[in-house]
Design a protein that fits this description.
- It is a single chain.
- This protein has a six-stranded parallel beta sheet, sandwiched between helices. It has a two-stranded antiparallel sheet with strand order 4-5.
- It is an alpha/beta fold and about 220 residues long.
- The chain has helices at about 20-30, 45-55, 75-85, 100-105, 120-130, 140-150, 160-170, 175-185, 185-200, 205-215, and strands at about 10-15, 35-45, 60-65, 65-70, 70, 90-95, 110-115, 135.
- A hairpin with a 2-residue loop joins β4 (about 65-70) and β5 (about 70).
- The chain folds into two domains: about 10-150, Response regulator (Rossmann fold); about 155-215, Arc Repressor Mutant, subunit A.
- About 50% of the residues lie in helices and about 15% in strands.
- The N and C termini lie far apart (about 45 Å).
Length: about 220
Amino acid sequence: MKSAPEARPSPARILLLEDETIVRTLLVEALRVQPDFVIAGEAGDLPEARLLLAGNRPVDILLADLVLPSGDGAVFAREVFRQHPRIRILMLTSRTDETSLLRALQAGVHGFLHKRDPLDTLLAAIRAVARGELAYNPAARRLLEKMKLDGTLRTEHALTPREEEILAHLARGRAHKEIAAALGLSPLTVKTHARNLMAKLDAHDRATLTREAVHRGLVI
């Protein structure tokens, strides 16, 4: 008896926000030929992106430029997270200064790449973000580590060391049973910690927990 074919995951639905027409067109063409991506829409400015997000077309990933003539990409990322908490954001930029990096990371984006990074790096980053992982280039990783060491990433809600451990595992997309096995706890204990974390951090889903873990420097 033949086993049923394994179900393939649905393609990641991507909204592209880029003000430079040539860059946006090239990105759309590069992404459109990937079998696991679907272009959910393309916008040249923030008002257009807001209209697309307000429509009925679902979006999984927002691929956005950090610096836009119509506004700040990092500020817009915070807006998107408030209104569409399940959307994951991968930020692109041509900037190399630490201030720009810091703005994006503090907004809690799930990925950060420079426009000079190779296309293969971008494709791999989108796939990682679609799987619920984080995708930062080396410069962003170095800044995250620095922020963690100098206290820039501290937040108002104090967590116990055990809560931080569990938050880091949750942010990496691990199931309660996996976390329990890794930490030597019962699945029920992990579930209780997860519920307490969501209440303490006012989080309603894993995407919010992931951003909180990034803010605290628990996942790099």
